[in-house]
Amino acid sequence: MTLFSRSRRAMARLPIRPRRMNFKFQGFEQSRYWFDNDPVLTHFMNVLSVTFPDGERFFVDAVRAFRDQVDDPQRQKDISGFIGQEAMHSLEHQAFNDLVAGQGPDQDALVNEALGVARRLLAGARKHLSAERQLAATAGLEHITAILADTILRRADMVEKMDPSVRPLWVWHAIEETEHKAVAFDLYQDVDGDYWRRQRAFFYGTAYLVAFSSYFTWRFLRQEGLHRRPLVLGKGLWKMFGYKGVVSQAIPDWFQYLRPGFHPWQDDNSHLLEKWRATLPEPAVSAAA
């Protein structure tokens, strides 16, 4: 059932350019808890990073499957930009994940276990979901990454709590997730547009992501014996789910996706991008989309 026009288009038109950054992560080995010196926040973000390389390849394939149904040259350019940016995200986060795994044999084993689970989940989605449902899942998960990116870009205090060795990675990723936040959604509206299919995919995608990130964050904390330290856990959980928490601040925007007339650019946060882009090093490679 289509509850609104499939022709709804992005309300902001941003250039979507892939940039290969080749981040060096200098000093990372001295910053085990790189996010606010907090193990809960750090492990949560590390676990999210584990999902990115394979998850974003899934997104790329879901979008590629339908790009031949788009005639508009600008839309084709946007899709090319999306594919290029997601490919760069996979490469940079793989390098980051390798550093996290390199923090010790136990850490390496757990990172690889999490990677294996993520790959099996995505393989199951590729096998059992139709191409339309894979695109719907991509649009929903892209909304989640976009609202987390928006939380980062709106919170200079949050960015400042990230260690300088990794801060540019997360700022760069947030900028690019914002630039292309409507690409998968617009394509889904063009080729399907069924509201209930979109919502089912969104709920399932959210449930799997919450379960995966919660379980492996707990596993990392348990591995270090921190699951027995209630003050450490309580402090970290408050930073995630308390007042202006990393997750709690994004929850109202999560609900926006449920509106029949939703579009990602109804929240136009494009004014944030130039400010943060100016804080980044020059890209190693910058290709026009």
Structure description:
With 289 residues, this protein is mainly alpha-helical. It has a single domain (35-277), classed as Ribonucleotide Reductase, subunit A (Orthogonal Bundle). Helix content is 63%, strand content 1%. The chain contains eleven helices and two strands. The protein has helices at residues 39-64, 73-101, 105-128, 131-154, 156-160, 167-179, 183-191, 195-223, 230-241, 251-256, 273-277, and strands at 19-20, 285-286. It has a two-stranded antiparallel sheet. Residues 1-10 have low confidence and may be disordered. The chain crosses the membrane at residues 201-221. One of its GO terms (molecular function) is hydrolase activity.
Low-confidence stretches: 1-10
Fraction in beta strands: under 5%
Q: Which strands sit side by side, in order, in the main sheet?
A: 1-2
Q: What Rg, in angstroms, do the CA atoms define?
A: 18 Å
Structural class: mainly alpha
CATH architecture: Orthogonal Bundle
**Main sheet: strands, sense, barrel:** 2 strands, antiparallel
Specify the helix fraction band. Answer: 55-70%
CATH topology: the name is Ribonucleotide Reductase, subunit A
Number of helices: 11
Q: Provide the CATH top-level class.
A: Mainly Alpha
Chain-averaged pLDDT: 93
N-end to C-end Cα span: 33 Å
Count the domains. 1
Secondary structure: number of strands: 2
- Order of H and E elements: EHHHHHHHHHHHE
Give the overall silhouette: globular
Organism: Alloalcanivorax gelatiniphagus
GO molecular function, one term: hydrolase activity
Transmembrane segments: 201-221
Protein name: Metal-dependent hydrolase
